[in-house]
Amino acid sequence: MPDEPEAALSPDENVGEPKTTVPHVLVVEDNVELARFLKAILSPLYRVDTASNGEEGITMATLEVPDLIISDVMMPIKDGYELCSALKSDFRTNHIPIILLTARADSDAKISGFQKEQMPISISLLKKKNYWSESKNLLSSARN
Questions:
Q1: pTM score > 0.85 for this model?
Q2: What does the alpha-carbon distance between residue 113 and residue 94 come to, in Å, rounded to a whole number?
Q3: Could you give the CA distance from residue 66 to residue 60 in angstroms, rounded to a whole number?
Q4: How far apart are CA 125 and CA 118, in angstroms?
Q5: How big is the chain by its Cα radius of gyration, in Å?
Q6: In terms of pLDDT, which residue wins out, 124 or 24?
Q7: How far apart are CA 132 and CA 115, in angstroms?
Q8: Paired strand residues for 50
Q9: Over the stretch 60-119, which tens digit does the pLDDT of each residue have?
Q10: Residues with Cβ < 8 Å from 111, sequence gap 6 or more?
Q11: What is the distance between the alpha carbons of residues 65 and 123, in angstroms, rounded to a whole number?
C-alpha cells in the first residue's frame, strides 16, 4: 500500500521528522533535583522531556502528545489535579495515562487522585520497583 502524501498529514504531525518508536515520557515536576533524578532513570529507555509546573506541562503535552505523563501533585501555577483535568478534557490529550506523585502517604491522597480524574497515583517514590512496573504497564497499554 503506498504511503500517504505529506499533504494529507494533520497539522499536529512533524513533517520531515522520522516517527520515533521510543516511548515519550513527560515529567512535570517543580523540584529540579527530583526532575533530574526521574529523567536520569527514564532516559536510557524513553525519550524524556520535563516541565517545571502544571501550566508548562499542559502546553508541552498538547504540543508533543507524550505516551505517558508523570506529574507531581503539589506545584506552582497549576497543580497535578488541574493538569489532569485540563488534559483529560482535551481530545488531543485525553488518552494519555498520567501518574501523579505525592509525598502524602495517607489513603486520602490516593482516593482523591482517583476521584478527580480516575488516574493512577503513586504514593511513594521510595517504592521504586512498584513505581517502575506501574510506569511500564501504563506505557504498554497506551501503545496498544
A1: no
A2: 16
A3: 9
A4: 20
A5: 16
A6: 24
A7: 23
A8: 27
A9: 999 999 999 999 888 989 998 899 889 989 999 999 988 888 766 554 555 454 444 444
A10: none
A11: 25
Q: Which residue has the cell 511500564?
A: 136
Q: What's at 36, amino acid-wise?
A: R
Q: For every residue of 40-76, which 3-state class applies, written as one string?
A: HHHCCCCEEEEECCHHHHHHHHHHHCCCEEEEECCCC
The pLDDT assigned to 106 comes to: 52
Residue type, 116: K
CA distances from 113 to 20, 80, 108 (A): 31, 9, 8
Closest CA to 80 of 45, 49, 109, 37: 109
**pLDDT per residue as tens digits for the range 33-60:** 989 999 999 999 999 999 999 999 999 9
- Grid cell in block for residue 63: 504540543
pLDDT band for position 13 (cuts 50, 70, 90)? very low
The residue among 46, 63, 114 whose CA lies nearest residue 84 is: 114
Those residues whose C-beta lies under 8 Å from the C-beta of residue 16, and which sit 6 or more positions away, are none
